[in-house]
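User: Write out your own:

AI:
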Amino acid sequence: MSGKLFWAQQAWLDGRWRSQVALEVNAAGHWQAITPDTPKPVYAQALSGPVLPSLVNAHSHAFQRAMAGLAEQRHAGEDDFWSWRDRMYGVALRLTPEQLAAVGAQLYLELLRGGYTQVCEFHYLQHQGDGQAYGEPLTMAWALADAARQVGMGLTMLPVLYERAGFATPVLRDDQRRFATDAPWVWRACEQINQAERPLLNAGVAVHSLRAASSASIKVLQGLVGDAAVPVHIHIAEQQQELRDCLAATGKHPVDYLCREFAPDERWHLVHATHTHPDEIKAVASSGAGVVICPGTEGNLGDGLCDLPSWLDEGVPLSLGSDSHVTRGWVEELRWLEYGQRLKLRQRNVAAQPGRQASTAERLFEACVKGSAAPAGFMQWGLQVGARADFLVLEPHASGLLGVPAQHLLDALVFASQGEVFHEVYVAGRCLMRQGRHVLQDAIAKDFEQAMLGLWESKHSVLL
């Protein structure tokens, strides 16, 4: 593509709104120059509303989109994370590569609509239904890569180390058979995906959790990664049972054990980290690692509430994930990130920082903009020279934003808006959604509907 020049009456730069902003995109789809206080150049494309940087969705299990909304009934006994997980395994055992591609395309389109332009796919659905490898071992990964390419979304693939069912169970359960990998497999997958050099596709690695991979295997993977500049993700401290099991097996709580045993650095991203002690948060801050919070899924699964004030006060890099995809937009994730704290502490504007950042929405959004690059393996993100030219154009006539003064625009977006608020979504300088629509959305929706019908015909419906 050749370079482009856009112009916005308002744009979010360096943590505040600036006026009359010229935004120049180079031929590679990255920001060449961003200049506020500039009258509109004659040849610039005027954007129709205020401009925001998009966010990276730092934690996704795309296949779980196929069960969003289908696990919300309880017919007997108690229902918790672990019973939900059993039902999720039933979905994982049935999906074909073709169905996964259809589900992934629908999801990625929805994430674009929700203000994300890059997604980190925590990918552990690897093998055939009987547990045997596909002829092409990365068949399921390529299905998701094809889905992202169809939509135009950036994708960071994170093949997952997954080798056992728990701290005291050294092998996988039978219903986990599609997930089996070892450290060399994961590193080969990462290298193969990066060597493909597909546009908007890169790879890192992931460890499913401390319970699902031995310390020895995690260290083997660390050795294979070496100094490579790739992100490393891990689920951690999501459930109280995990804390009890880790304490019994290692004598330490999960985040404490991780920091002591594996010395994470700025490439590491701790997903959930819901149940922590203050000293653990300080240890993460000292390491440079980031935390990925998934408020929608954590609420849906009854995980609990993180210590958001401490994560913010310690300056730990923060990003968002939609995880199981019961929510698929960052506006709702930020709203519930704050609302959870308000309900827990019975206070208002918990994330605000009087005297420095009085706006709750602005502080949370800016933290997530700054925290978006590293989980995806990037050096830069947002409206800054050198970063990929991804951005959002707000719908200026959205009911929650109409008539709102500029200094309250993000507050109104996060806490007073309903429905679709992004008029346009751009990736690498290219408009993928205009007036909330994607050019392929009807065909993608049709394929998704067919995949869902195949998965949820009557003989399967009792499984959830």
Q: What stands out?
A: DSSP finds 14 helices and 18 strands in the chain. The chain has a mean pLDDT of 96. The longest helix spans residues 97-113.
